[in-house]
Amino acid sequence: MLQAAGPLGQVREIDLLRLRSAASPCAGTTGATWLLDAARLVGLPADRDEAAREAETGTTTGLGRALAAALNAIAPGDTLIATLASAAVHDGGAGALEGLGGLAAARSSLGGRELVLALADDTPLGGVSGAGQNLTAVTTLTGERAQDLNRQACAAASSIASQVAVPRSATLPVVGGEPAQTLSATSRGTGAGGGAALALRALGARTLPATRVMARLLELDEAVAGQDLVVTATGEAYDVVADSVTAVVGEAAGNLALPTVLVAGRLAVPRGELAEAGVVSAYSLEALGAVRNETWNDGGAPALRERLVAAGARLARTWSR
Fold first, then answer.
1. Most-buried pick from 25, 89, 102, 166 (CB within 10 A)?
2. 260 closest CA partner among 224, 284, 285, 236
C-alpha cells in the first residue's frame, strides 16, 4: 500500500501488488510483474465543482511520486503495470515529471524496468475529441476556459515529449498502433491522467488497453479453453467498442470457436454488430421482468440480483444440453 497526494493535495492510498504466477504483458521479460492502481489516485470526481477545481489548479505530482516509489520498490527486470483513466486534473503530465524527480531521476527509475500503462480509454489529450473537450462535460468550466486549460496542457506535454522521446524498435503496440516517432498531443491514449500518459510514454512507458492487459494477467484464453459457453456482462451497451470487455471476451471465445453470450443491463446494439464481436446471443435485464418506466438498476441490489437470477435461469434453459 502506498500513500500519495491526489490532484488537490488530499492523501490517498493506492495498492501496489506483486502478481503471483501472472504472465507479463511484455514479451521477453522474466522478472516479476507488479500492478499499481494509479487510476484511483487521479480518478474523476463525481462532483463537477470539485472536478473543475482539479482542472484549474490540480496537479499530477502525487502520481509521479507514487510511480517513483513503486519503481524504486521493484527490481531491475521487473514489470510495473500502472492503471490510468480519464481525469479532471489537466496539467499535461508536468506534475508527474516533477514527482518523478525530473528527467534524470525519471530515466534512472525506469532503467532496466518495464512500465506499462493500462489505459481505460484511448482519448487523446488534444484535438476535437480529446480530453480537453471532455472537460465541459465533467466539470462546471465554460468551453472557453476548458480550451485555455487544454492549450496549456498540450504545450506542457509536448515540451516534455520533445525533450525526452526516443523511438523504440521493439515495443508492444500502443493504443491506436502509433509508433513513438509520431507521439504528440493528438496521439490516441495520451489524455489519460490529464496528459500524464503522454509524458510517461515519452519517457519510454508502453501503453496497452486495460482490457487486453487484464485478459493476459487473468489468463483469459486458458480460462475459456474447454468450456461450452462463455458469458460476459456489461452495464449498458449501445455499441461494441474495440478493446471493450465484450470485444475482448468475444475474440477469446471466437478464437476457439466457442459461443459468447452478453448479459447487459440495457441493450441497444444491433444484432449484426454483436455478431461481428463474436456474440451469438444477448439478454437485457430491462426485458426480464422490468416494469414500464423502470430502468435495469432500479430497486437497488436486491432487485438487480433478482434480474440476474432470472437471466441465469433463462441462459440455463436455452443453452443446457
1. 89
2. 224
Extract the C-alpha cell encoding 33: 510483474
Q: Do 238 and 187 fall into the same domain?
A: no
Judgement on whether residues 119 and 195 belong to the same structural domain of the protein:
yes
Taking alpha carbons only, the member of 20, 18, 14 closest to residue 1 is: 14
Coil/strand/helix, residue 70: helix
Where are the alpha helices (H) located in the chain, listed in sequence order? Answer: 48-57, 61-73, 94-99, 103-110, 131-138, 143-164, 196-202, 210-217, 220-224, 245-254, 271-276, 300-319
Pairwise CA distance, residues 120 & 191, whole Å? 11
Question: What average pLDDT does range 48-59 have in this prediction?
Answer: 96
Q: Nearest-5° angle of CA 314, CA 318, CA 319?
A: 115
Kindly state whether residues 96 and 242 are assigned to the same domain. Answer: no
Of 153, 183, 213, which one is at a domain's C-terminal end?
Answer: 213
How many Cβ atoms from other residues are within 10 Å of residue 174's Cβ?
25
Distances (CA, A) of 192 to 120, 210, 223: 8, 12, 30
Looking up residue 33, the CATH number of its domain turns out to be 3.90.1510.10
Confidence of residue 178 (pLDDT cuts 50, 70, 90): very low
Residues 282 and 167 in one domain: no
Averaged pLDDT, 223-234: 93
Distance in angstroms (rounded) separating the CA atoms of residues 279 and 218: 21
Give φ, ψ of 38 to 5 degrees: -70, -25
* Same domain membership, residue 118 and residue 69: yes
pTM of the model: 0.82
Residue type, 5: A
Label the pairing between strands 16-19 and 11-14. unpaired
Question: Structurally, how many domains does the chain consist of?
Answer: 2
Task: Check whether residue 123 and residue 227 sit in a common domain.
Answer: no
| pLDDT 10s digits, 295-321 | 888 888 898 888 899 889 999 998 887
Closest CA to 67 of 106, 30, 31, 94: 106
Which residue type does 249 have?
A: V
Q: 175 with 249, same domain?
A: no
